[in-house]
Specification:
With 163 residues, the chain is mainly beta. Helices cover 9% and strands 53% of the residues. It has one helix and eight strands. It has a four-stranded antiparallel β-sheet, with no helix packed on it. It has a four-stranded antiparallel β-sheet with strand order 2-7-4-5, with no helix packed on it. The radius of gyration is 18 Å and the shape is elongated.
Length: 163
């Protein structure tokens, strides 16, 4: 007869939930969950980029776009980075799942599938999330994930640093 310790049961449950929660496109190793906050935040700085990629081809998988933003948190208690992004894409041959991927210091901050890309028109994807960071310099990068070849057109990225 097998006996199960509470630690074994908890570890099994955690692993099961981790496998089940894999419905986003980010890798499990680099996936960082957005963090909740309850206190008021003070805006320190806003970074904004808008551009037109003019139909740049996107391959199946992860496609970096835009500029890397470097933000500097000087607050001794740390800061909160909030990112609001949108990207306009146009499908080529088949409808395909897509996502905006937001990375802070190279780690994906969740990346849920956004909307299927249309084959007959443009699709605008949006995603907003945030993460607490320690004092210091941090990079914010953007990617579009598509499951089939697509094209990238207009995009906007707003990065806000709060304390």
């Amino acid at each position: 007869m097998k006996t199960f310790t509470p630690a074994l049961v908890a570890a099994t449950a955690l692993l099961s939930l981790s496998a089940w929660a894999g419905s986003d496109v980010s890798s499990a190793k680099a996936n960082v969950q957005p963090q909740a906050f309850t206190a008021g935040l003070k805006l320190l700085k806003t970074y904004f980029e808008t551009n037109n990629a003019n139909g740049t081809a996107l391959v199946s998988g992860f496609n970096p776009y835009g500029s890397t933003q470097t933000v500097n948190c000087t607050a001794t208690a740390g800061c909160f980075i909030m990112v609001n992004a949108n990207a306009q894409v146009a499908g080529v041959a088949t409808v395909n799942p897509s996502a905006i991927v937001i990375k802070v210091d190279g780690a994906t901050i969740n990346a849920p599938f956004n909307t299927p890309v249309s084959t007959t028109s443009f699709t605008v994807m949006t995603y907003q999330t945030g993460i607490a960071v320690a004092t210091g310099s941090h990079t914010v990068t953007m990617e579009v994930y598509v499951s089939n070849p697509t094209t990238l057109h207009r995009y906007n990225t707003e990065v806000k640093l709060y304390k």
